[in-house]
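TICKET #2291
ISSUE: user wants both folds in one file
ATTACHMENT 1:
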Amino acid sequence: MKTFAVFGDPIAHSVSPRLHNKAIADLALDALYTRVLLKDGNELINKFRSLKLNGANVTLPHKEFALNLADEASEAARKIGSANTLVLKNEKIYAYNTDAPGFLKAISNFKEAKSAIVLGAGGTANALTYALRSQNIDVCILNRSKARLDKFKDHYECFSWDDYKEHKFDLVVNSTSAGLKDDLLPAPKEILDGILKSAKFAFDVIYGKQTPFLKEAKRQNLACKDGADMLLYQAVLALNLFYNGSLDEKKIEASMREAMCLA
């Protein structure tokens, strides 16, 4: 039997086990998938090996640890600077990023977006900015502090909350955990209101909850999506990576969509 898990902090809210275990059952695979609360990202690989996992997903706030601590990494994961999928092959742990392609599939109906601002500068932002730039969308990043912006400055226009200058964007993306377990916004309200008033689309990586960010976006009549589809698509790709690309992704998606609808 193969064993898989998702690592994160917090992790109790994660529906990844539900999605993966439904697909595992429907495809008659001999495996199980669970969740693991991990406080210290430095312990990610040690925990992976001690649990004798065959593969894992990694969510906030450990995606950069996943890339940096793995034995090998895909070219896309290296370019993005973070990983959300780990696979054990020949006793080595390989890192991949399925967030970027999952995100692009999730926003495929936002076809008119030519410019975007990403709120936050963590591991998820790495994937989202990479994905947006791959579609020739102009990208700007806004983060609470300047420190985490250094890795982006060579490729993107970057602002901290203190030095933000008002711009217009078609798409506003929240890549932070603000609103997941609290009522916080991903940026100060006065800044966020100015950004949203001229935008057309809003996307929040958080799923299954009307976050304060999405409430503000809807109040300003933006077309909105939460992170459910991104979660679904990245999970489909991840499960196939666990099986070395041998599975039928359409069948995985059908199973996982059913699981998303379960209470």
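ATTACHMENT 2:
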Amino acid sequence: QTTTPEEISLKTPATPITRKPGITDVGVVALVPDRWKAFWETRHFILTGLSEYFPVVWCNPPNPWQDFWKNCDDSEFGKDSSLFPGLSVYQPERWLPNIGRPDFLSSWVGKSRLNRARNLLVSQGCRKIILYLWRPNFKAALDLMEYDLSCYHIDDDYPLLNSDQEQQVVLESDRETASRVDQLFVTSPGLLTKKGQFNPQTLFVPNGVDYNLFATPCTEPEDLAPIPHPRVGYVGMIKHQLNLPLLIDLAKRNPDLSFVLVGPRRLHEEVTSFISELLRLPNVYILGPKPLEALPRYQQHMDVSLLCYKVNAYTNCVYPLKLHQYLASGIPVIGSRIRSLEDFDSVIDLADTADEWDLCIKKALLPDNDLEGKAVKRRELAKQHDWNWLVEKIAFRLCHRLGGPYPERLRDEVRKSRMG
């Protein structure tokens, strides 16, 4: 068994974009909940993809006002031109921190930050500005900045992530943000059912995969090679939304199988407790966080992959980022019966009870398990969810909402990119 430090390692992009934006007079100001240099989430894939079409400014969250006197890291400010020519990172200045009260000062500081981010685009020649929100707490920006189109991307059921006291406040903010923007994007069928009613301009865009990265055969990593087969793997964030007691049960039932977890751990008391119990089992291996481009090397050398979520109101709105990464590898996948996975029951096995999970694992490991050619079907489904296609879908919706010549200009740019 090997372990790595708790902290989340820096994730680098798998496939850098070398082409400059094709539509340079439209810019995107993206308000995100985390810094550019963080564990890659849905917003990283979408915004870097959009930067191939439009200049994008990723706005790092401002530092708390209490940190005013600290030496803050401003190294992320400016263009990340080595990887994404169309992406700029705006790190709010120390004198524009996050201030909650008084309201007039909070609004002035917020407006100043937004205008500075907007000016980064204007200085590049952008005449149309898209305000792209990724959390309901950015709602105030709708009144603080000049823009031509606003959108809100919901990739989680944020109210359910908060305490009971905060749920109602976040729910009201979430509903108001969704109803006020010009365009709403949601990432799962559960969110579409729950939030789509807030805005008639709602588009379902699921999470995707860098298909070529995850489908191209890779060599086995050195730290995985000594672990005996059969390997039952989970590659992703280890968090309290996972059914960790189930994982412990399955590992105890199957001492002849190696259970391998690859990914950072969420700093949560429940996760820490179960990780400690897992580490005491001789057939459990926790390899820690890995760079994004290294994940296919681990994924491809598992024998079975697990999507072992708890089943509740929150997870029924989840669309696992790792779903299509798993499918692109072609190996068997077993998942909990959450809403987003039910649509893929033709290529993955769904289980409810521990006994069902146990049977599914044993079935997946049978030598003749792939008689129906499910490996090919898994890859075909993953390829249909490549990030390139999904981002293109978002870009076209944005251009249609802007109107005028933009849809046709985007069509021209897409034709150019496909021609090489």
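RESOLUTION: both attachments delivered.
EXTRA DETAIL ON ATTACHMENT 2: The longest helix spans residues 103-122.
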